[in-house]
Write a structure and sequence with these properties.
It contains 8 helices and 7 strands, in the order βαβαβαβαβαβαααβ. β5 (141-145), α5 (158-178) and β6 (184-190) form a beta-alpha-beta unit. The chain has helices at 23-34, 46-58, 73-87, 110-138, 158-178, 197-202, 205-214, 223-234, and strands spanning 14-18, 38-43, 63-67, 92-95, 141-145, 184-190, 245-248. The chain is globular. With 266 residues, the protein is α/β, with parallel strands linked by helices. Strands 3-2-1-4-5-6-7 form a 7-stranded parallel beta sheet, sandwiched between helices. α1 crosses α8 (223-234). It has one domain (14-249): Rossmann fold, CATH 3.40.50.720. It binds coenzyme A. The site of coenzyme A has 15 residues, from α4 and α6.
């Protein structure tokens, strides 16, 4: 897709993208690389990271696969060090790694709740914390991918809603604490995004049509649209933005919770 941004906007910069092996994270990595950034892809599955890295290299970019679990602080810290050793610096961190599934709160296990909080919220803290010193050196920025579940009560996703709300609050706290270090911290909150594991998992065939019908703009987001919002935030156009969450939901949250109630079988 042709970009509305100036070409090579990120030339000379290095980005680390968690969840970079698939879906939204991979799309963001491709977009940042397409704008000249060298990218490090962090995720749990080496083969997926390798495939995205190969694709970026094939398109003339530079990419490094860093297999690690964002829940493991030591592994995250080692990955950040490796990214800096190999690619020379660190300007941009995108927290895209996430986990979610549909489960009623009354039967969700404590471990299931914790797993999602650990990946989404603790993982975002771990990566941001481990990258802070390098980002301060580069006067760089962080963008975390949240979701409308952070602010719109959504049945069967209390684990992800709590985690994403936590990330949006963490975004504001880190933005304030790190502003004088020159590190900006923002978030992007998409609704359903076409062609992602999220939609496959969370909008099962029977609910999918109702969820789609309800989006005021009449369709789900594309991965490119999420990547574009991230690119805006990390670019000079976003230089005065920090502590913000860009809502990217085609207007759905203007309506409050809706057909979601159907999912409760009420
Ligand atoms: N419904 C209810 N509970 C579930 C569940 C589901 N669909 N899937 C997992 N869990 C529970 C497990 O039962 C387990 O709890 P238990 O030990 O009490 O049984 C707990 O969650 C951890 O599951 P496990 O598979 O061991 O965790 P993991 O660390 O390997 O995986 C997940 C983490 C569960 C978030 C997994 O779905 C994942 O890796 N997702 C990543 C991709 C993704 O979700 N993408 C979409 C983002 S929108």
């Amino acid at each position: 897709m042709s970009s509305v941004f100036a070409p090579n906007l990120l030339a000379g910069q290095v980005a680390l993208v968690t969840g970079g092996g698939s879906g939204i994270g991979a799309g963001i990595a491709r977009t940042l690389a397409g704008q000249g950034a060298r990218v490090a892809l962090l995720g749990r599955t080496q083969a997926k990271l390798d495939a995205v890295a190969a694709e970026i290299r094939g398109a003339g970019g530079e990419a490094l696969a860093l297999p690690a679990d964002v829940r493991d602080y030591a592994a995250v810290e080692a990955s950040v060090s490796r990214a800096v050793e190999t690619l020379g610096r660190l300007d941009i961190v995108v927290n895209g790694a996430a986990g979610n599934f549909l489960a009623p709160a009354a039967s969700l296990s404590a471990n299931g709740f914790r797993a999602v909080i650990d990946i989404d919220l603790c993982g975002t803290f771990n990566v941001s914390r481990a990258a802070f010193a390098q980002l301060a050196k580069a006067r760089g920025s962080i963008v975390s991918i949240t979701a409308t579940q952070a602010s719109v009560p959504t049945p069967l996703q209390c684990h992800a809603g709590a985690a994403k709300a936590g990330i949006e609050k963490l975004t504001r706290d880190l933005a304030l604490e790190w502003a004088r270090s020159g590190v900006r911290v923002n978030a992007v909150a998409p609704g359903p995004v076409e062609g992602t594991e999220g939609v496959r998992r969370l909008a099962p065939a029977d609910a999918d049509a109702a969820v789609r019908r309800r989006v005021p703009l009449g369709r789900f987001a594309t991965i490119d649209e999420v990547s574009g919002a991230v690119l805006f935030l990390v670019s000079p156009a976003g230089a005065y933005m920090t502590g913000a969450t860009i809502l990217l939901d085609g207007g759905t949250s203007l309506l409050g919770p809706g057909p979601f109630l159907d999912m409760l079988g009420a």
